[in-house]
Each structure stands twice: as structure tokens, then as C-alpha cells.
Design goal:
Blueprint (H helix, E strand, L loop, with lengths): L26 H18 L11 E11 L5 E12 L3 E6 L6 H8 L7 E9 L2 E2 L8 E3 L11 H12 L6 H14 L20 H13 L5 E5 L7 H13 L5 E5 L5 H4 L4 E6 L2 E7 L3 H7 L10 H9 L4 H7 L6 H13 L2 H15 L14 H18 L1 H21 L8 H19 L5 H16 L5 H31 L5 H28 L3 H17 L15 H8 L1 H14 L3 E3 L8 E3 H8 L8 H37 L3 H7 L16
Parallel strand pairs: 3-8, 3-9, 6-7, 7-8
Antiparallel strand pairs: 1-2, 1-4, 4-5, 9-10, 11-12
Helix pairs in contact: 3-4, 13-17, 14-17, 15-18, 15-21, 16-18, 17-18, 17-23, 18-19, 18-21, 18-23, 21-22, 21-23
The structure holds adenosine-5'-triphosphate.
The site of adenosine-5'-triphosphate has 13 residues, from helix 2.
């Protein structure tokens, strides 16, 4: 159909237009408009932020990203709008138009390489969202892949729901949400990840939604909740979400909603290349397009029509196929200008101003009501189950450790007590304290996965960072005990190190503590660089330096100052591990001296003092205590890092934002330019 001439009347006011639920095809517009007028104006006039719920407004919102050179590229261009309790706002637009960026900006989760300008107010107040103030179902389903659907939702219920609710009530709530999302037939299916097939993409999507709607958050963001779902599933999922909107503010970006799903939206925010094509009641969008000369063809889904009209990505194909068609860029400019000169736009601005003026309640952080102890217990249990089921977490490592233990046991088999055994014992202990513990790095991919899930759950306020840090350490302990006892015993007894159960237990304890230390170190690395390759390189580099400066490859007195001797030698855990193991092994043993040079008999203490320059004055137990203290310190550092990221990120974002007035000076607002040009900041 050829577009008609632009006969759009600026007096068009979508806030007085009918509700969309009864208006799916153009013919119905006229018949339902009068009936619905009253309903929508009632909604439109509800701007009292004093009521319970979240009123969100954004005004002249710009988001730009540096394009690598000295200029910036705008992703969102001066957007203005609002979302209110009891309403479902749908954000639609072609792929890449900025839907996720808008959601991220509103939820306070923009990437650090972006700059945000403009006002976002919550209940009329400038308030930083994120970390527990809202729930956000992101596009990526960051879930624990080894859990079943029931486990994932139930653990989440235990973490998020208050202690005052009984376990059976929590279980009941979890089961109900699972049923609501149509997952009752997959409750016992594991979610699955790379390498392990589990749920389908659409089912994972629904698990993510289940987890976030468990507590009925006051402000809910959903980024493409229906991706991967068939049209029936999309409708049921969206209708469940829409059914929760009473007293809640829901904003969802969505691709290709069916006409039934479209009927569930209260308001529609239509974007193209980061510009507003339309904002207002979803039911009035059809008329807006029709009045501008782009009526929805009979029997066509309106949302398909809107997206087709404003998608310029395939203009070349269209040009080849339909030579007489208006270029899409022109169509978009017409709609953008038309919207900006309409009374409805002024009305939206008036609404935003009105809502912004009324200061309502401060949105409280952290929706989690489970006690700290409950969080620790539930997270420890969940993490323990995950570690047990994830073969790569510990079991594979155990198999490699056992293989290496046999390697060590055979290469140093029955090491004896000759003069030559001194060097053999030293090398073997060094290998155990350095390389066996170094291999803990192999668990890093699993740590990164854990960190991703933690970040999502933390941002959505499911639990505190402290509970995560404690649970992560506690759940790893039983496995590390197994991993240090079995390969430790094989190595110890095959090589014939100093006899006595206490000596073996000390050996295994140092191995265990060093593995805890390396795990803690790698969690710190995962907290700083949540990138698998970079993390492994960084972790390996740090440990390489520590091993070098531990006082074995270069004896302590020969270590160059200032870096290697002070401070590295004193802070590297390898120093305390080597010296503890050496004391455990050599003290009490006697060796025949070097026949050519030294004394006839060498006492173990002399070997330590003269050959390895071990520090005396404190016992091997002090070495072990220092190592345990380091585990505590590393975990504390990990906690400080994850909590400071929470504080630093919003501060950086606030620092990166410039007041809207400045923005207007450096950027061209399309509404003020006769022909739209891509604005840029240089
Ligand atoms: N942090 C970033 N750095 C660089 N470019 C970015 C960043 N965030 C978004 N963009 C760019 O902004 C544009 C809009 O991205 P966004 O993800 O918001 O689109 P979208 O409408 O959600 O797309 P889709 O529907 O395909 O998910 C894209 O071109 C994207 O590459």
C-alpha cells in the first residue's frame, strides 16, 4: 500500500485515545475510541506520586558512546517519557534502535563506556537505581546451569522471600510461579549450559522471569521477555506479567508482539535509531500512524506494521524491490517531527513535569528479606550442589591431581635419607606448594560463571555480598579437603616423607590452605576482570611472580631489593608454605654429610638454616596460621572489591553524566533541526 500524504494533525492527543486492548485492526479504532476515552484519560491524569508504587520519569535523556576517536555517537537522543504504577510500558523498535540501552539507563545499569545526560527521576527524586531497588530480567539468561528449574526457583525463593514465610509457603510460591510460566513439565530438567543440553532458550527465559517476579517487585524491567517463545507462550507469559501490574511499574522491551500481546500494553514507546517515533497509549499508535499517512493494512498486526514502517536497515533491498516507496529515513523523520510537534508530546512533557514535581517515597534498596544467616546457608547449599554437579569445578581437578600425585610419587619414589635426598625432598615440596596449588587456576571458568550469576542477583538485590563471599568459601572447603587429602596421601606415602600422622596432616593442611588461597586470589581476579581469558592470564602472572619471589629459586638473602626481597618475599604465600613444609619435613631428620666437603652428619635444622635459609624463631604452626590468616585477608579483599564495585560504578556513572543544559549546547536535537542529521559530540 502506498503511504498517503502526511495529513497528521498536530492536535492529535494519544493520551485521550482509546485503550489498545480492543483495537487491534484499524477498522476498530473509530468504534472503540469514545468508549475508551474516559478510561485512558483517567490513567493519564493519575500523577500522584504519594501513592504506593514507583513513578519513573525521564526527560531529555541522551546516551552517547565513544566511537574510539575523539567523537561520540548518540544511542539515545533526547527521550522523554514516564512509567507509572499499574501500567505496562512496552518499548518497541527495530533491532539496534536502543531499547536495551534505554532499559539500562532507566535501571542505572549502563556500561561504563557510555555517557548519560538528562534527568531520570524516581517518585520525583533523583535516585540511583540498581543493587536491589528494582528487578531486571536481562537479555542474557545468567543462571546456574547445573540446577533444575525447581531448584533454581526454590533456592531463589528462599533467598528473596522473608524469614517470616514458612518453607512450605515459599515452596508453594515457587511452584505457583513455575506453573504460571508454563514450566510444570520441565521442573526436574537441568537448566544446562555450554556442552550440556538442558532447557531450550525460551524455557530459560521463563526461568529468569520466574526468579525476578517471585517477590513482585515494585519496579520491573524486562528486556525481551518473550524472545525464543512461540506466539502462544509469549501471550501467556506476557499476560502473567501484565496480571502483576496492579501497584507495580513494569517496563518491557519487546520484539514482534502478536496482536493479543500488544493488547496487554498500557503505553507504547516506539523508538527508531534512538529517537522517539511515538510515546503514548498503545491503542492510539495505530491512529498516529494512520494520520501521518501510514495506516496499518487490514488484518495486519499493528506492531508488525509499525516496525516495518520504521526499519531502515534493509532500505537497499526495499529500494530494489519497490522503486516508488519513500525512503524509510524520510518516513522516520516525518513521524519523529510529527510526534514532536503534536499536542500529545506537550501533554507527555506536562505529565512528566507534573510527576517530577511531586516528591514521593524513596525507593528502598534491597528487597531481600531473608536473614543474613539464611542467605549464607542457602547460598552455601546451592553452591555446594553446583560444585558437585559441575564436573569441571572439582572432579576433573581431582582426577588430574591424582595423576600428578602418582607422577610425583613415582619420580620421587621412596626418596630415602641419603645426602641427595635433601635436594629431592626440597624440590618435591616446592612442586607441591607451587604447582599443585597453581593448578587451582583451572577452576577459573567456573568462578567466572559464578561471578556472573552473583552480579545479576546482587544487582537485583537477592542477597548481600557478604553472604556470597562466605558461602563461596564454605561450599568449596569440603571439596578442597578431598582434593588435598587423596592426592596428598598418594604423594606423601609413595615418596616416603617423614613418618608420622601429624607430619602428613600438616602437609595436607598446607596443601589445603594454599588451594584456598589460590581460589580466593582467583575470585579476586574474577571480581576485577570478569573475562575468562584475561583472568587466567592475570592470575597466572601474579602467581608466577609469587613463586619466583618465594625464596626457593633464588635464596632469600640473594633476592634483589627492593621489589623481590621487600615487599614481595614477605607477602607471597609461597614463602610461608615452603618454609612450613620444610620445617615439617626436615626438623627431626638426620642426613649423612657431603663426603667431599662438609661435616659427616647433617641435622635437618642445619639443612634448613644453611641450605634453604629458612627463618627460625617461629614454629611450622605459625607458618600455617599465617597462611590461614592470608585466606581470611584474601576473602576480605574479595568482599571489599565486590562491595566497592557497587559503590564505585554508580559514582562513575554520575560523574560521567553532564547536566542536560550542557548537553543541549553540544548536541543537535532533531526536533530543532529542519533536516535530521546524526548529532555528534566532538
Ligand atoms: N556499551 C556500548 N558500547 C558501544 N555501543 C553500544 C553500547 N551499548 C549499546 N551500543 C550500541 O547502541 C545501539 C543500540 O543497542 P541496544 O542494545 O540498545 O539495541 P536494541 O534495540 O536493544 O537491539 P536488539 O533489539 O537487537 O537487542 C547498537 O548499535 C549497539 O551496538
Amino acid at each position: 500500500m502506498q503511504p498517503q500524504v502526511n495529513n497528521y494533525q498536530p492536535s492529535f492527543n494519544p493520551t485521550s485515545m482509546p485503550n489498545n486492548s480492543e483495537m487491534m485492526i484499524p477498522l476498530e479504532v473509530e468504534t472503540t475510541s469514545i468508549a475508551n476515552n474516559r478510561a485512558t484519560s483517567a490513567v493519564a491524569d493519575r500523577t500522584d506520586t504519594g501513592s504506593d508504587g514507583v513513578f519513573l520519569t525521564w526527560e531529555d535523556l541522551w546516551v552517547t558512546v565513544s566511537d574510539g576517536r575523539k567523537s561520540s555517537r548518540p544511542i539515545l537522543q533526547g527521550l522523554t517519557g514516564y512509567a507509572r504504577p499499574g501500567e505496562l510500558l512496552a518499548i518497541m523498535g527495530p533491532s539496534g534502535c536502543g531499547k536495551s540501552t534505554l532499559l539500562d539507563a532507566l535501571a542505572g545499569r549502563l556500561d561504563s563506556n557510555t555517557r548519560q545526560n538528562g534527568d531520570i527521576l524516581i517518585n520525583g527524586r533523583k535516585q540511583t537505581l540498581a543493587y536491589g531497588t528494582s528487578a531486571y530480567v536481562t537479555q542474557d539468561d545468567l543462571l546456574i546451569t547445573t540446577l533444575t528449574v525447581r531448584e533454581a526457583v526454590y533456592y531463589s525463593a528462599q533467598l528473596q522471600l522473608p524469614n517470616s514465610m514458612s518453607m512450605s509457603e515459599k515452596r508453594e510460591r515457587a511452584e505457583m510461579i513455575i506453573r504460571d510460566m508454563g514450566l510444570q513439565d520441565s521442573v526436574n530438567t537441568r537448566i544446562g549450559g555450554w556442552g550440556v543440553k538442558g532447557l531450550s532458550g525460551g524455557q530459560k527465559r521463563r526461568v529468569s522471569i520466574c526468579i525476578e517476579i517471585l517477590t513482585g517487585p515494585k519496579l520491573l524491567f524486562l528486556d525481551e521477555p518473550t524472545s525464543g517463545l512461540d506466539s502462544a507462550a509469549s501471550y501467556y507469559v506476557m499476560s502473567r506479567i501484565a496480571g502483576q501490574k496492579e501497584g507495580r511499574t513494569i517496563i518491557a522491551s519487546i520484539h514482534q508482539p502478536s496482536s493479543e500481546v500488544f493488547g496487554l500494553f498500557t503505553n507504547l514507546f516506539l523508538l527508531s535509531s534512538g529517537r522517539t517515533v511515538y510515546f503514548g497509549p498503545a491503542g492510539a499508535a495505530n491512529e498516529f500512524f494512520a494520520l501521518n499517512g501510514f495506516p496499518c493494512p487490514m488484518l495486519q498486526n499493528p506492531s508488525d506494521h509499525f516496525l516495518k514502517t520504521i526499519n531502515k536497515d534493509f532500505d537497499q533491498d526495499i529500494e530494489q524491490g519497490l522503486r516508488n516507496k519513500k525512503p524509510t529515513e524520510e518516513v522516520i523523520n516525518t513521524l519523529v517531527k510529527s510526534y514532536q510537534s503534536s499536542t500529545s508530546y506537550q501533554d507527555i512533557q506536562r505529565q512528566v513535569a507534573q510527576i517530577s514535581k511531586q516528591e514521593g517515597e524513596v525507593l528502598e534498596k534491597n528487597r531481600s528479606h531473608a536473614s543474613f544467616l539464611t542467605q549464607c546457608i542457602v547460598l552455601t547449599r546451592r553452591s555446594f550442589v553446583n560444585m558437585f554437579r559441575d564436573l569441571g569445578y572439582y572432579w576433573l581437578r581431582l582426577a588430574i591431581y591424582v595423576t600428578l600425585a602418582f607422577g610425583l610419587g613415582t619420580i620421587f619414589y621412596n626418596v630415602g635419607s641419603s645426602y641427595g635426598s635433601i635436594q629431592a625432598r626440597g624440590s618435591m615440596l616446592m612442586f607441591v606448594a607451587s604447582f599443585l596449588t597453581f593448578m587451582t587456576i583451572g577452576g577459573f571458568p567456573s568462578f567466572v560463571e559464578d561471578m556472573k550469576v552473583f552480579e545479576r542477583e546482587r544487582l537485583n538485590g537477592h542477597y548481600s555480598s557478604g553472604a556470597f563471599v562466605i558461602a563461596n568459601a564454605l561450599s568449596a572447603m569440603p571439596y578442597l579437603i578431598v582434593v588435598s587429602l587423596i592426592p596428598g596421601a598418594i604423594t606423601y606415602y609413595l615418596t616416603g616423607l617423614q613418618q608420622g600422622f601429624e607430619h602428613f596432616m600438616y602437609f595436607a593442611s598446607v596443601l589445603f590452605t594454599c588451594m584456598m588461597l589460590v581460589e580466593s586470589l582467583m575470585m579476586i581476579v574474577a571480581g576485577i576482570v570478569p573475562n575468562f581469558l584475561m583472568g587466567i592470564i592475570l592470575g597466572a602472572g601474579i602467581q608466577g611472580l609469587m613463586i619466583l619471589g618465594g625464596g626457593f629459586f633464588r635464596l632469600p638473602k640473594d633476592l634483589p631489593k627492593p621489589f623481590w626481597r621487600y615487599p614481595l618475599y614477605d607477602i607471597t604465600f609461597h614463602k610461608y608454605a615452603y618454609q612450613g613444609l620444610f620445617k615439617n619435613e626436615f626438623i627431626g631428620l638426620v642426613f649423612p654429610g657431603d663426603e667431599a666437603r662438609g661435616p659427616k652428619i647433617l641435622k635437618g635444622e642445619d639443612v634448613l638454616r644453611n641450605m634453604y635459609q629458612v627463618e627460625f624463631g617461629y614454629s611450622k604452626w605459625v607458618n600455617l596460621a599465617i597462611l590461614l590468616g592470608m585466606v581470611f585477608l584474601y576473602r576480605l579483599l574479595f568482599f571489599v572489591i565486590v562491595t566497592s564495585v557497587e559503590k564505585v560504578k554508580p559514582a562513575i556513572r554520575a560523574f560521567m553524566s553532564v547536566p542536560p543544559k550542557q548537553t543541549k549546547q553540544v548536541m543537535m536535537n532533531p526536533s530543532t533541526t529542519p533536516e535530521h542529521k546524526e548529532p555528534s559530540i566532538v
